[in-house]
């Protein structure tokens, strides 16, 4: 099925521990991503055989399963030893276009890093990650992908009984900020340097010739993470657990545990049950991203100054540049959402003013932007209908009209805005309902929701309920880690 390479194990053997998946009682394919399989160049027609391979029932030919080591700052506190406690890297698949992808099991049983936990995943957690990651990919947000979910036939105990499953995850790599923290904490500078070269070669090969490679890596990751978090903020995504072990070097979104899309816009929005102080609140994500990049810099700094002492200052200036980099990415994406094809200096203020005036409006984030495009033909009323206090947004809308007046005429403006502003995202109440049904064996709601969020910009007949906010009285949405 796969044609595996194992460059990580070859280059950095001390970062990996060989380990086998637990054998499940009765594997059954629940979701299969045929389009992704084709993009990866997989040959795999037999669903029963695929379910056996992608659940741990049979060794995947050519795979060399390993659990990888990493450390991480969790809610601000350093844990020197985390690692793949419920995941196994099978190997790397080279796609027909030449790009290299990690193929990883999630939920395949205990590893040396599981501590006291079972290393398994519930069917609903695996399906949640599948749905969220495929939605993010369709929204053009860099992300790990999901190839398959196979139910194991085993029951898991998580306060109540749940069916178990294995997710097959596809990632540009699983290198994290926490991988560098682990190297620095346990193996010192030489290991950090080897990891740096591996990461640069894999993700930023154009920077391999840099004078100071660890500094070049730090810059590349700052840029990739600034771009990523700017995209999250423009689709209303709350990651929920931005610990440094969940921050990739590639700049892909990873670990869809407690994440959720905003219903009502609020910078303070938190969904995760364990984030009581709002560390990972929607509006705090750029701040935390920068904090995480400081942790990467700490892990790299010895290697950076070993090349040139003066680059200590260069690293500091680089980290100082994060806010400007982030704002540049954020406003570039927001311009498309607002129908602006040219840039002006005061666009950033226009964008910030919109977000400031939306606070407290009970505005559904996704619907609001579609209402803005509709308002170009139908007037302010369609926007006002989305707000509790329309008069408070009216001056901003007038400023936006004035700004549009400085744009070249474009008869396709509304259509272009509607390719930047999705209609369908995995709304919390719909996702929950689909996952509850799936655990009871009814896959229809999941499949319908998945089909819509996989083509999120194109309006479909008869699917209006997928564009509506949760009914009044729906309890506040709460998400959980590690289920
Ligand atoms: P996460 O919150 O998913 O990023 O996980 C944080 C750490 O806990 C990682 O080292 C995971 O491997 C580990 N972990 C989470 N859930 C489990 C589980 N069910 N069994 C073993 N380890 C787990
Ligand atoms: Mg994680």
Write the topology of this structure.
Layout: E1 4-5, H1 7-11, E2 16-18, E3 28-32, H2 34-39, H3 47-53, E4 66-68, E5 72-74, E6 77-79, E7 87-94, E8 100-106, E9 121-122, H4 123-138, E10 145-158, E11 160-171, H5 177-186, H6 189-203, H7 213-235, E12 237-238, E13 260-261, H8 285-307, H9 311-320, H10 322-337, H11 347-358, H12 365-378, H13 381-384, H14 390-404, H15 413-417, H16 428-439, H17 444-453
Antiparallel strand pairs: 1-7, 2-4, 3-10, 5-6, 7-8, 8-11, 9-11, 10-11, 12-13
The structure holds adenosine monophosphate and magnesium ion (MG).
Adenosine monophosphate (AMP) binds next to loops.
Can you describe this structure?
There is one protein chain. The radius of gyration is 23 Å and the shape is globular. It has four domains: 4-171, no CATH class; 177-330; 340-418, no CATH class; 428-467, no CATH class. Helix 7 (213-235) runs parallel beside helix 9 and helix 7 runs parallel beside helix 10. Strand 10 (145-158) and strand 11 (160-171) form a beta hairpin. It has helices spanning 7-11, 34-39, 47-53, 123-138, 177-186, 189-203, 213-235, 285-307, 311-320, 322-337, 347-358, 365-378, 381-384, 390-404, 413-417, 428-439, 444-453; strands at residues 4-5, 16-18, 28-32, 66-68, 72-74, 77-79, 87-94, 100-106, 121-122, 145-158, 160-171, 237-238, 260-261. Strands 1, 3, 7, 8, 9, 10 and 11 form a seven-stranded antiparallel β-sheet that branches. A two-stranded antiparallel ribbon has the order 2-4. It has a two-stranded antiparallel ribbon with strand order 5-6. It is 42% helix and 14% strand. The protein is of the alpha+beta class. It contains 17 helices and 13 strands. The relative contact order is 0.11. The model has no long low-confidence stretch (mean pLDDT 97). Adenosine monophosphate (AMP) binds next to loops.
